[in-house]
């Protein structure tokens, strides 16, 4: 397997599921099987749990994992920095590299995990690649995987329920199915560990649970302010 091109293939695991998605997952597995046996167990778990004959459920699980009342996010700059200005700096730097290396980000931001993987696939060896792995991708992946811990999921559900008053019904009655996206993240991390001498421990990242709680509070405050302003205008 040629150096780093497999990261572009791995990006397919984290795209929104469409027709043919299970076949793409199996293609990724076959590409990794010989060189990355450490990743295969996690991919096999993913394939085993994937409701491959139910496209709608696959899409709902993806959405619940990463978008709506999410377990985590695929925007790794947000994982690392939340809404801090440092994320803006990272997006600016990544945008420049994407343009320079002709990486099409589609409708997603520059720090969206599939876009970052496509960039890594075409980066030349050197300080930039090392920094991308050590300071961005590895610590973000480590935190994203940790967000699938049962305790963390329970805390997030409590935060969402407090804000939205109710939780969106899980696509599946099986917890293992609803949290299946931890497995491609773990598989990617295993590939990363074999390819690069990444650290055993990582600095603290932004807390996803705190970030979503603060966002919910800000949203609630904004709605209350708008409602109060509207009521005041009507009373004048």
TL;DR of this structure?
The protein is an all-alpha fold and 236 residues long.
Structural notes for this entry:
- By secondary structure, this protein is mostly helical.
- It has one domain (6-235).
- The protein has helices at 6-10, 21-32, 37-49, 55-66, 76-81, 85-100, 113-122, 127-146, 150-164, 175-178, 182-195, 208-235.
- It starts with 5 loop residues before the first helix and ends with a helix.
- Residues 221-226 have low confidence and may be disordered.
User: Into which percent range does the helicity of residues fall?
Assistant: 55-70%
Total count of strands: 0
- List the secondary-structure elements in sequence, H or E: HHHHHHHHHHHH
The low-confidence parts are: 221-226
- Structure class: mainly alpha
Instruction: State which percent range the strand residues make up.
Output: under 5%
Rg over C-alpha atoms, rounded to the nearest angstrom: 19 Å
The global form is: globular
**Cα distance spanning the termini:** 71 Å
Oligomer: single chain
- Secondary structure tally, helices: 12
The largest sheet is:
none
Mean pLDDT, all residues: 88
> What is the total number of structural domains?
1
């Amino acid at each position: 397997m040629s150096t780093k091109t497999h990261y572009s293939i791995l990006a397919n695991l984290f795209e929104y599921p469409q027709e043919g998605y299970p076949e793409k997952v199996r293609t990724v597995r076959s590409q990794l099987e010989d060189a990355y046996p450490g990743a295969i167990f996690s991919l096999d778990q993913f394939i085993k749990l994937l409701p491959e004959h139910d496209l709608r459920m696959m899409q709902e699980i993806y959405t619940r994992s990463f978008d709506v009342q999410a377990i985590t996010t695929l925007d790794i700059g947000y994982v690392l920095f939340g809404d801090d200005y440092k994320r803006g700096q990272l997006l600016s730097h990544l945008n420049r590299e994407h343009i320079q290396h002709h990486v099409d980000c589609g409708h997603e931001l520059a720090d969206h995990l599939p876009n970052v993987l496509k960039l890594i696939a075409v980066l030349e060896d050197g300080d930039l690649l090392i920094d991308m792995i050590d300071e961005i991708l590895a610590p973000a992946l480590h935190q994203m995987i940790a967000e699938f811990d049962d305790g963390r999921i329970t805390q997030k559900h409590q935060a969402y329920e407090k804000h939205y008053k109710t939780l969106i019904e899980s696509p599946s009655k099986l917890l293992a199915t609803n949290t299946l996206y931890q497995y491609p993240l773990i598989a990617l991390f295993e590939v990363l560990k074999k390819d690069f001498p990444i650290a055993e421990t990582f600095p603290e990242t932004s807390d996803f649970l705190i970030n979503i709680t603060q966002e919910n509070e800000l949203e609630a405050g904004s709605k209350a302010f708008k409602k109060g302003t509207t009521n005041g205008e009507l009373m004048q």
